[in-house]
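Minutes, project huddle
Topic: does the predicted pose make sense with flavin mononucleotide bound?
PN asked that the exact inputs be recorded in the minutes so nobody has to dig through chat later. Recorded below.
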Amino acid sequence: MKSMNDVGNLTLAVTGASGSIYAVAMLRALVGDKRVRRIHFVASENALRVFAEELGLSGRNDLPTKLLGSPSDKICLHPESDIGAGIASGSYPSRGMIVLPCSMGTLGAIANGLAANLIQRAADVCLKEQRPLILCVRETPFNRIHLRNMQLAAEAGATIFPVIPTLYNRPQTTTEMAKQFVDRVLAHLGLEQPGAYQWKAEED
Ligand SMILES: Cc1cc2nc3c(=O)[nH]c(=O)nc-3n(C[C@H](O)[C@H](O)[C@H](O)COP(=O)(O)O)c2cc1C
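Predicted holo structure (tokens), as shared on screen:
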């Protein structure tokens, strides 16, 4: 996809896989990116459980503020159960969706078209409207069901973008590692981030 000056609405969904720091880094990058006008943010119930384990946060109230440390009027927080939100309809002008981290449960539901909650439905809408859908899956090891579901989702148009950090750029902290991963995801969406690491080959 080409670089964009204005992407309008983007959806960020967080599910109950390990990797809360990646979700925080993504939210921070989207809030700071002037090309993104509105962030539709949905966290599953199980994402809240993982936030509690990994970040010591509790509850859904003011979740974006708790994650970022300050409020942002760009963020529109949706309950996971709100199947009537704009992003649940193909007529709503969304430019794409990132699920970070994406659990094997949500991957399976998306791959099989369950559309049983807002995250699954918004992803289903992206696939039917042929909009970018980036599934940042996280599990290890993968069983054959996981692998099959990744293939199914990829065949339906999703990008499988596993939460696997790069080390050749020598991140010094987990925050830096998460930021570098997020930069790669956003570059894939055409939203190159200023200061993002770029590999320089010797011949350059
Ligand atoms: C602390 C913690 C870490 C977890 N890590 C993962 C993980 O990395 N990948 C995964 O697929 N599930 C993981 N799970 C299990 C999921 O949360 C669980 O399968 C849940 O049903 C997913 O629901 P959701 O997709 O609606 O968020 C974890 C659960 C907990 C409590």
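Observations noted during the meeting:
- The mean pLDDT is 95.
- Helices lie at 20-32, 45-55, 63-68, 104-111, 118-128, 144-155, 174-188.
No decisions taken; revisit at the next huddle.
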